[in-house]
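Cross-posting from the modeling subforum.

Setting up a comparison between two proteins and wanted a second pair of eyes on the formatting. Protein 1 (sequence, then structure tokens):
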Amino acid sequence: MSAILELAEYLGIESSYYDIWGNQIFATDETRSSLLNAMGFTINTDEDAQQALLKLQRDKWSSPLDPVYIIPAEAQTGRIRIRLAASALQHKIHLLLSLESGDLHQKQISVSQLKPLSEQTIDGQTVKEFELEIPDNLTLGYHMLDLRLPDCQSLSSLVVAPRTCYEPKQVSDNKLWGVAAQLYSLRSQQNLGLGDFGDLAKLVHNAAEHGASSVGLNPLHPLFPANPAHISPYSPTSRSFVNTLYIDVHAISELNESKAGRELLESGHYKEKVAQLNQQELLDYPAVAKLKQQLLEIAYQHFVCEHQAKNTHRSQKFDDFCDEMGAELDTLCTYDALYEHFHKQNPDVYGWKDWPAEYQQANSAAVIQFAQENKQRIGFFKYCQWIADQQLSGIAKLAKQQGMPVGLYLDLAVGCDGSGAEVWGEQDLFVSGAGVGCPPDLLNQLGQDWGLTPINPFALRQKAFRPFVNALRNNMRHAGALRIDHVFGLMRQYWIAPGKDARSGAYVRFPLDDLLRIIALESRRQKCLVIGEDLGTTPDGFGDIAAQAKMLSYKVLYFENQQDGRYVKPADYPDLSMVTVSTHDLPTIKGWWEGNDLKWRTELKLYPSEETRLKELNGRNEERKLLLTALLDAELITPEAASKIDLTSPSMTLELSVAIQKFLASSCGFLFMIPLEDLLSLKEQVNIPGTTWQHPNWLRRLPCPIDKLFSQAHAQQVVKAVNQLRVK
């Protein structure tokens, strides 16, 4: 084995993978070297790789403790591996264990009493590895281990975590259902042309009244306030906060208290602009952002003058929020202020990679000085985050008050935009230049580059998984369920080599067992269900591992087929699953039945060949027949009605659409979600993977306001049928 291949294997870069068609695809030497260089290694020759590998091994054996240990909560005794120089055999180890609760446990152990497991020679010195028993009485949580010897001290994080997540049976004994919404798409007379948290509150109220147990949402992560044209919710600047464009400005107390705010809200110009934005078929994010920011700035100025200056109770609550969110909030809001500052100077300057060099490090002297000189502007962005968090928290409480067993079902994106705040703030964690995506598959046969910067799993462990914990915790704080996008990324991620297309990549291993334990710990603490979006090529063993962790699988009708192509029967869906007909990246059921997605793929030239296009076109005809057969077998449609359905010129009917929703509603899956696009029998899908400006992704608004969603004829029939099959 070459040293380059050995180094790649050590860092988790896999040599090959099997694609969705069963072909073994090998990573090229060029891809391997390119990814290694992106990870921070200068690798031009085998000798370079050999030296890099030796340094990694030396660093590991030179430290007594690993950066982090994950201790199974069900284990009788915690056991970890430590490394000590042979000269330490005559000494005693002094262990200090600081529990998350604040309790401190101490213990002394003679090194000579420990059993050596292995040894290495590092720089001419023998280093032995031992197994060490951790003091008893460990509780669930995050603790700190301090190991001391006469000539050294070493610190490590100790995470005691359960095996299983918060379970469906702890939520309800019944099978539940809910609606899934793209928040921005909601219509109302009150919003500014883009769905907001005020609209979400109404949706929660109306959905609960009609028997829904949950409202699912697109990722609510923050994007880029100074660049509102950046709109994909799956390409955030950070995964730990909230998109402030969703703030319901009319619900901000400071705006209503302010004379300037009231005058603006009552002005003819404002009302005319809002009416204009609400009449548009597609969203105008920049126009909405401009209007909303004007209102937010008025509210903030009033807050500064009437609350911060007088140290009111409301000001203290804001300070508490800032303290709770800590350094991550400082980083995000400093970044937002810098982004705005440089973008105003030059409209062609966007993320931190375009800024002057002295501002490209979050802890540089220039950035620290900027933060000191722009405290109020940074304070404005913090205020917006606080307002957004308050409003989202209120909606989560409303859902519970309305009797929703699950409540808000939020979505955690797989990663962050490389030009954003999270990457800027922790550059040593990310692999700049590389991309996260997926190889060619049924959704896109050219592969996909999601425009996200991958996290280095080796660096993540060095940070004791802290960034991952923060992302989970901040997304679960207001959620009754959390969908983890592309959950396979916990086991392995497909990295695309810098400067290459999605076909030039390799899979990189992640510490699945450790990450699942952390997910389970946070899930239990927050009483939040976890749903793993597991579409695509499933890595060997992943399904069983996720099920053992009580993570709900993500079942989409289009992909639930047996080997002979027949659709899986409702009774054969796993209990531990969330089921749905479609998702944001797939056609609506009406669009699928009528072949609208195939039309778009043809127009957008997303097929690698005409042969592939014709194969999918013919395959869709067969899929329609099989679905109709499945509905007949389940007695959800009568033979007479089925005989009237024209498969050669397919057109979705009310009876057929309702039967398809009933098919999944009758399944064994714990949670059944209906996208609002399907509830209203819409034709166009939310997003077409592999496209950006070529298609109106993330721009479509719903055709009717929130208060009329459930009174539409199609929605009434679906809700009635689902409530008969599922008990709230």
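Protein 2 (same layout):
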Amino acid sequence: MRVGPRLLLSAFVWKPTSAFVEWLAYHRTLGVTQTVIYVDRRQDGKEPLLDALGAAGVIDIVPVAVDSDIKEEIHNSAIRAARMEAAETGGYGLYLAPDEYFCISDPSQSLPALMQSCGDADVLCAPVHLAGIAPKRPHIPGGLLQHAISLAGTGTQRSVTRLGLFASRTPERPVGPVQGDADSVWVNGDGSVIPAPQSLAGATGPAQAGSKASVLKIPAPSVETYLVHQQALPAKQHPSVAVHTARLEVLASTTGARWTVDMRPDATSAEVSALLALPDVAAAQAALCDTETVTREILRNTSPDFQAVIAALNGEAPAKTMEPSKPVIETDETSIADDDPRPEGGAKLPRWFAEIHTSGDNQGFYTRLKNHAVSFVERDPARLVVTFDNLSSVNDMSAEREPWAYKFVHDNGFSHLSVMARRKDWFRDPQLITYLQKLSSDGFFAAFDKVILTGTSMGGFAALAFASLSPGATVISFNPQTTLEEALVPWEERFAMGRARDWSLPHSDCAFEIDDVQKAYVIYDPFFTPDRRHVERLESDKLILLKTWCSGHYSPVFLRRAGLLKPLMQHAFDDTLTPAVFYDMIRARRALPWYRKALIVNLQARGHDQLAARVTPAFRKLKRERAE
């Protein structure tokens, strides 16, 4: 089926570089008819170049809440782009990073024409190649496409996809079932059909000879420019001198086919001129180039890291400059035993890892997946606790990071399987899901007489969502979401990063995962509407709802401050937690100033001002009675 000439290009831009205008112009010459740029909503209106291009109607700017990890945000925006593409028809969609260039070997072809020449393909998977960087080339702000560049394959790809065909995508490829009944035709970079199931075959093949299409990733035209661009990233994203140097040494030593990216330089040059002629664009571009030049001068004169990287690449750095700095990890000596294993010259091992280290006393394993880590410590062969991280743990990349509830599980002597996350994805990751499913099918959970799954918020969702992997398990879930699939919970407006995930994956709706549990304790605040609405979606005779009034979305913190969290968890671990036991315990919340203040606010919001006025005197009376 022939389609129209529409071509939607999408990208996430943290901060535009001086090469952005050329990137935009180049892709417009390939037939791009609409460009959607996702930006950090905190930067919306603060980037003159993007603002000028947006005002001229050349790009559509979409402000979004962003992840602190820029690489992760690129993935998030690919999912956003897929939602846009799924709602459109009559053309194709392409998602790239702003340093990636889609290359067509035939300069006379547009990208839609390329798709039609490949048998009217629905998906074209083009291999990504990394451009080397000339180590001694001077700083060059602005365009970079006319340079001859050495290439190295990356083993990844980018995909052009027919609009309206797929509901989701990764940066590499569309995912999920085809919308409708039609079979989809996939081809790789040389135009060959990729047979089902469509694997990463599109990442194979040469970049040039015999290839119809590929993608070239150009980090920067020079080492200095690369370091200037890195400086614009959030501080926590700045690599060390050793990491910078190692990366740049690879890029500087890249060998292979020498290739000029732009096969239609006259058309690109004319398009650049047309963009610069738009109101305020030329001034914004000039200011951006000037800023990069000034930044380079400042770094060159004042930054030891900048100087060390340049010197190292020129073979002038002393050996010690090349050694990665060893992290200084402060430890709480009251909570870590004096005989914990300590690698010579390094920090103490994390407590959980020390247990399964060769010098430890327990068996176990640690598996590092792409976006998650799974650790297991075997203490009791009959009892297992499975914990899932919450949002507050995601950005903790320290070596001493512990799984959620580690100390409590350790003190109870239970075996512990922990799922640690490094992104806010609600565990919507095919690799992780497959890993946990395999543990289940291999009989890992069935080997234990008692299994408890627990977590809070994102982790509370996971405890419920993966409960079906261990029939007969007990679940302790604090403030869970049941799903973030928009069609099922259209009223959920929190957790933008989570809502942007792929909710077509298995274990995505807790309402269908708890039929075979022994018990599912769900602890929540019924006054907090979003959490209450999620809980109302759950139906099971195994469900035990425990209400922590006036705690908001922070039931574990609320209970801990009331001195109730450990007793509650202990009762659940011992299988003695009942509603009667819980509600007798929860009376202790009356000693919390948090509860008093929240109760007043809640009563006032419901129009009970007279009752609200009686709260503080009642609490003071109760306090006096306890003191007597």
